[in-house]
Amino acid sequence: MYKKKECVAMLLAGGQGSRLYTLTEKTAKPAVPFGGKYRIIDFPMSNCINSGIDTVGVLTQYQPLVLNEYIGNGQPWDLDRLNGGVMVLPPYQGKKGADWYKGTANAIYQNLGFINRYDPDYVIILSGDHIYKMDYNAMLQSHKATGADCTIAVLEVPLSEASRFGIMVTDETGKITEFQEKPKHPTSTKASMGIYIFNRKVLEEYLIADENTPGSANDFGKNIIPNMLNDGKMMYAYPFVGYWKDVGTIDSLWEANMDLLGENPNFNIHDKNWRIFSRNYAEPPHFVGDDAVVVNSMITEGCEIDGVVENSVLANGVKVEKGAIVKDAVIMSGAVIKSGAKVIYSIIDSNTVISSGAVVGEDKATAKGIAIVGSDLTLAENLVIEAGAMVNNDYGDGVSVNEN
Amino acid sequence: MSVAGIIFSNVHDANIPELTRNRTLASVPFGCRYRLIDFALSNMVNSGISNISVITHYNYQSLMDHIGAGKDWDLARRSGGIKILPPFITSFANSVNDLYNTRLEALKSVNYSISKITDDYVVLSDCDVICNIDLNDMIKNHIDNKADITMAVKKVYLDKLAAKRNVLIDSDDNGRVTDVKVYPTSFEGYSDINLNIMVMSREYLQEIVLDAIAHDHTSFNKDVLLRNLNRSNFRVYRYDGYFACISSPEDYYKSNMDLIKDKDIRKQLFGEKNRPVLTKVRNSAPTYYSPESKIKNSMIADGCQIYGEVENCILFRGVKIGKGSVVKNSILFQDTFTGENVQLNCVIADKNVVVRDNKVLSGDETLPFYLAKGKMI
Q1: Crossing angle for the helix pair B135-144 and B37-46, to the nearest 10 degrees
Q2: Which pLDDT score, from 0 to 100, does residue B98 have?
Q3: What is the 3-state secondary structure (H, E, C) of A80-92?
Q4: CB within 10 Å: which end of chain A, N or C, has fewer?
Q5: Is the ipTM of this complex over 0.85?
Q6: Cα end-to-end span (Å), chain B
């Protein structure tokens, strides 16, 4: 027996994140590590549970192994429930045939069965690509108060950047009058955050209609939203105020990590009333040795620091040996920076070893870009990786793949 | 072969009265993010033991809060898992409701639960066994030797004061126990001490408990070990990794400081492959170090915010060190808050202590200054 839920969340986590290059070679974008002990998907998942939404379908497609393992039974987010909880929803083979998820709308369409089991009044569509804290329940209350068929969360962006987003034009009550997908000449600064609340019946109707439209891209932004607007459905914008960041590129991922630093950080994850939950592996507390210098940085469990760490975010189990320098860098779990090595303005992926004397990246002021080193690699002693370079298995001389 | 575990949560409470005022010894915080029982529990869980009983006596709310359903130790099980055994007290008239005092009395009081154990072997452990021991090897040793009881021991140097707080075990070349000295008053030198981790078969345990009830025995050392020394096969199992138990407030301070004194100790406790020390997860954010922070030789949990200077310290989760503050040689429990320009030296601050701006407090390594839970200065 399934009990009725007021609102079910559907989290789109199939994104490949191709602009994160080597970081998403082996994992889906939502599973990319962030902020020391988190993965990107922790943010929407924690938002759900903190907003009282306890039924979450996670739609996976690209490289799902790490993501599936990470979500597991949902216990870290309190989503291991007798009724509801988290459910990973990969594409499947049905009676009429098997299909990959063709688009965001198609992914939800293929899982209408999951949604309908809980007989929800509302469905909230989320994406697993953003770093933010948001009370979905407040948005749901607003959706109910306006009596809308669909409510879209929007963020004020500078007019100069508006052409990168889906833009909502609204009247003074917040009712959406026009939708412009990446407009050349935007007439509003309300950018869609890709967070939608639908009345379930309306959503179902439009998904089925969309599925039966040949040539449709099966996409919320391109098809469902414009179609509903054309039909004169009640659609409202819900203004979100606060930190929100799309971490789809190397630069934005690096920036979002840096936004955690500072006395009054742009993004505060120390908020005890809105905890971000993540899967923990019970590592010992971190240790900072006699010769270490740690300045404006974030360090988490399992780390051992004997070198210099400045303006950096270190994930669990990172070792920085004596005489090593880490500056303006994001170091992911289990990486080792050997003595005398320098890592500057870089992102180092999990379990990679930077041997003694090796230099990765160069000073931010002069660098032409962020240097990235992929996971499970060993960089030879004294190897120099220039700024903006990308190092993966195929790099060649000086880079070897770690044996397990 | 299956093994059950029994943990005594209160046996040494009196050793650190300040810290056990509101909690069992088992739930005394240790090493930034742990409670003492985490070591005993992890040793068992890492050795595949998934049926564990924790015998409690009093003050066990904090312990129940820590353990919860046992999920963080993978002990939330359909069958077995973790069970807390509080004192059994009836409200019938004329019934005697004596609380137990000794280890053997504790076992007698949970006789019913012990009689229901179906596992082949039982590991009994105190809660203050700070070590990372492979119990499987010990159990194998127990079986190979056809022992009745196997006791984990470690050879250490004891001065007179330390000897008075320990149970000393003598054994012959084959590892058979020949003498048990309980808190000797005039011993000095090297000796094996009882680590209070024991293995015995389920039948043997059930037998000694029934025997103790029948004869009204009260002391495990005297009535079980010494009384049966010649006719039973009691064996020692030598453990030579890091071990600490808490027999005094100085011990407590020293064994915390051990964690930052020696890389090898950290390795022996936390670096054993496949034997992680498990604990309750609190989901704190990573620790933040500000541009003006200075930090030296310290072990720090997640969730802290460091704006001042920290040297030779153990900081638990959510500690905040204000600007201009200097904290040395101290142990600050969960959510300790220090204002600006505070100076602390050799201080143990219990949970939620607030030290206001400009305060100066200092204890000594032999007598750390203790600030009780929730105190505001």
Answers
A1: 60
A2: 66
A3: CCCCCEEEEECCC
A4: N
A5: yes
A6: 55
Query: How many angstroms separate the CA atoms of A316 and B285, rounded?
Result: 12
What are the pLDDT digits (tens) for B232-291? 999 999 999 999 988 888 889 999 999 999 899 999 999 988 999 999 998 899 999 999
Reported as type and span, the H/E element at residue B354 is strand B354-355
| Phi, psi (deg, nearest 5) at residue B201 | -75, 160
Q: Which of B:33-52 have CB within 8 Å of A?
A: 33
Rg, C-alpha atoms of chain A: 22
Q: Is the pLDDT of residue B358 over 80?
A: yes
Q: Do B71 and A75 touch (CB under 8 A)?
A: yes
pLDDT digits (tens, 9 = 90+) for B181-219: 999 998 999 999 999 999 999 999 999 999 999 999 989
Partner residues linked to B268 by β-bridges: none
Picking from B298, B302, B307, the nearest residue to A288 by CB comes out as: B298
Q: In angstroms, rounded to a whole number, what is the distance separating the alpha carbons of residues A371 and B95?
A: 75
- Chain A hits for B305, CB-CB cut-off 8 Å, are 270
**Cα separation, A202 vs A223, whole angstroms:** 14
Q: Per the CB < 8 Å rule, is A299 touching B297?
A: no
Contacts of B269 in chain A (CB under 8 A): 284
DSSP state of B276: P
DSSP secondary structure letters along A90-101: ---EETTEE---
User: Which residue has better confidence, B58 or A258?
Assistant: A258
Encoded tokens for B206: 């059930």
Whether B289 sits inside 8 A of A299 (CB atoms) is yes
Cα(B266)–Cα(B275) distance, rounded to whole angstroms? 13
Per DSSP, helices labelled H in chain B are 37-46, 61-67, 103-109, 111-115, 135-144, 160-163, 202-215, 249-261, 263-270
Identify the band that residue B302 occupies on the pLDDT scale cut at 50, 70 and 90: very high
- Chain-chain contact of A301 with B33 (C-beta, under 8 angstroms): yes
Question: Which residue is it, tokens 């000095």?
Answer: B188
Which of B300, B315, B317, B340 to probe by mutation at the A interface, max A CB count within 10 Å?
A: B300
Q: Do B288 and A281 touch (CB under 8 A)?
A: no
The span from the CA of B318 to the CA of B301, in Å, is 8
Q: Which of residues 238-267 of A touch B (CB under 8 A)?
A: 260-261, 263, 265
Residue type, B75: L
Residue B372: left (phi > 0), alpha (psi -120 to 50), or beta?
Answer: beta
What is the per-residue pLDDT across B147-186, written as a single tens digit (0 to 9) for each? 999 999 999 999 998 898 899 999 999 999 999 999 999 8
Cα–Cα distances (Å) from B302 to A46, B74, B314, B353, in that order, read 18, 22, 12, 18
A-facing residues of B in 255-284 (CB < 8 A) are 260, 266, 269-270, 276-279, 281, 283
Q: What are phi and psi of A139, to 5 degrees?
A: -65, -40
CB contact under 8 A, B270 and A263: no
Instruction: Specify whether the backbone of B32 is left (phi greater than 0), alpha (psi in -120 to 50) or beta.
Output: left
Both tokens of A384, joined, read 């120099």
Contacts of A283 in chain B (CB under 8 A): 270, 276
pLDDT of residue A96: 76
Q: Give the nearest partner residue to B283 out of A278, A283, A290, using CB atoms.
A: A278
Given phi > 0 = left and psi -120 to 50 = alpha, else beta, which region is A333?
beta
Which of these, A359, A351, A356, lies nearest to A377 by C-alpha position? A351
pLDDT the model gives residue A182: 86
**Angle ∠(A291,A294,A299) on CA atoms, nearest 5:** 115
Please say whether the beta carbons of B153 and B176 come within 8 A: no
Residues of chain A with C-beta less than 8 angstroms from the C-beta of B307: 263
